[in-house]
Design goal:
Layout (H helix, E strand, L loop, with lengths): L31 E2 L13 H9 L11 H11 L6 E4 L1 H13 L5 E6 L4 H9 L2 E6 L8 H6 L5 E7 L11 H10 L5 E5 L14 H5 L5 E6 L12 E4 L2 H10 L7 H11 L2 H25 L10 E5 L4 H11 L1 E2 L1 E3 L3 E5 L3 H17 L1
Parallel strand pairs: 1-10, 3-4, 3-5, 5-6, 6-7
Antiparallel strand pairs: 2-8, 7-8, 9-12, 11-12
């Protein structure tokens, strides 16, 4: 026996751990989970039936090429199949992007605070994170991000709408930024919440990708489509990038259940739009009431709202949980609160009103 242990990569030292939204308590009073940006509705019509049918053959490997899903995506978004790649949620595809572009000595730029997986997957790749602070209005500082590009920059994440602040980037600012980025630097437009956008000034990233070979668009079935538990996301990018993503994908990573459920979800567009419209209406109500209470709330285009609370963040989260709503605190910064069921949103609003009076 020896006291030596296996040698592991130094890049993993001190890596932050991804913190999922806490679930609601299993016992005690009724509690709602508003901490993970999940869709509160059940699967769309036909989706559960497709998933159950696929589950009957899970003794077999899934279609590794995701042939049916890729064909459906190509048709829906009017892109070549060769420009598509799938993965285990958009975060899985994001990690494939890091594996394809960056390693030790390279740099990855992203706004901060933004999606908390960015620093994790960047550090795993061995690359260095370059975090550019948000503006005072909780938005990406695109000029500062463009200024941060160096000869070592390999990839830039642009999260729009931004998780956790909800702010989305408008076309003139985004196009001006893309024009400044060197053509050999990959820009990833992370649009996990695209379906909730109602501001016509916010462009669809797929429009921008078409004539920009260094732009990649990330999408997911976890949010609007309500398939968070099945882990399926996809990227749209020009062929060299998409091919690299397919090479770095975990073999058979997207289950057949997930593939068939995603196809059925895409074919249930009318029901999807109805549900998303209902969530957007609730988002507007929650936003208006928070403003009326005196809160300064960033205009959100996602399915959540953001309250910057500083050192009162943990106290607010605890108060919400006592009232029956679990929210997502970022200690020292603020809370992100998912738009959920009406009853859940009402609990959050009551907590926010009482808390506001104490500030």
């Amino acid at each position: 026996m020896t006291d030596k242990t296996p040698k592991l990569r130094a890049a993993l030292d001190g890596i932050p751990t991804y913190k999922p939204g806490r679930p609601a308590a299993a016992d005690g009073p009724v509690a709602y989970k508003l901490s993970s940006n999940e869709n509160p509705y059940p699967p769309l019509p036909g989706v559960l039936e497709s998933a159950v049918a696929a589950a009957g053959s899970f003794n077999r490997y899934p279609d590794m090429a995701c042939t049916g899903l890729m064909a459906e995506l190509a048709d829906r978004f009017e892109v070549p199949v060769e420009h598509l790649a799938t993965g285990t949620g958009s975060v899985g595809v994001a990690q494939q992007l890091l594996q394809s572009t960056a390693g030790p000595g390279d740099e990855v730029i992203y706004a901060w605070r933004s999606f908390e997986a960015y620093p994790i997957i960047t550090q795993i790749s061995g690359a260095a994170s370059v975090r550019v602070p948000l503006t005072g209005t909780e938005e990406h500082d695109l000029d500062a991000m463009a200024d941060a590009v160096t000869e070592r920059t390999r990839l830039i994440f642009v999260c729009s709408p931004n998780n956790p602040t909800g702010a989305a980037i408008r076309r003139p600012e985004l196009e001006r930024f893309l024009d400044r980025v060197p053509s050999d630097v990959l820009v990833v437009l992370d649009e996990a919440y695209r379906e909730f956008v109602r501001d016509e000034r916010v462009p669809d990233g797929i429009e921008l990708y078409r004539d920009r070979p260094n732009v990649c668009v990330l999408r997911t079935f976890s949010k609007a489509y309500g398939l968070a538990g099945l882990r399926v996301g996809f990227a749209i990018a020009h062929e060299p990038v998409a091919a690299a993503l397919r090479k770095t994908a975990v073999p058979f990573g997207v289950s057949q259940v997930a593939q068939d459920a995603a196809v059925a979800s895409l074919r249930s567009e009318a029901a999807l739009l109805e549900r998303v419209d209902a969530l957007v209406a609730e988002r507007s109500r929650v936003f208006r009431e928070l403003v009326a209470q005196g809160w300064t709330v960033p205009e959100t285009q996602a399915n959540f709202v953001w309250l910057r609370l500083g050192d009162r963040t943990v106290d607010f989260a605890a108060a919400a949980e006592r009232a029956g709503a679990v929210v997502r605190p970022f200690p020292g910064e603020g809370v992100r609160v998912t738009i959920g069921e009406v009853a859940a949103n009402d609990i959050f609003l009551r907590v926010a009103e009482a808390f506001r009076k104490e500030l």
